[in-house]
Amino acid sequence: MKLIFVYNADSGLIAALKDTVHKVVSPDTYQCNLCKVTFGAVSMKDEWKAFVDSLQYDVEFLHRDEFQERYPENKNEPLPALFVVENNEIKTALSKKSIDGAHSVENLISLVSTFLNTHLHA
Known about the structure:
By secondary structure, the protein is an alpha+beta fold. The chain is 46% helix and 18% strand.
């Protein structure tokens, strides 16, 4: 089984620079809460990295363009989101609405942990 976190941002250096500036200059209008909550100005927050590293699942992070290329059947899914891939089937685990409701790393860790404990260990 694999967990795929998908950012509502495109890949590449120019997109990353633009996103970094946007997060700093106008954080309230930044469209990727997953990015905003899990990253500082230039790197992944330590608490989030430690949590992800502790998960007993394969974890992948994709940007919007990468996700749409690999999983075109899910290209209309609102992002950011968390998906679960199992037996070659992809399902939404945490929707944009859920991720947008997380206002801190702790909130997001709690959401992911609750999902995993409720849906995958049942």
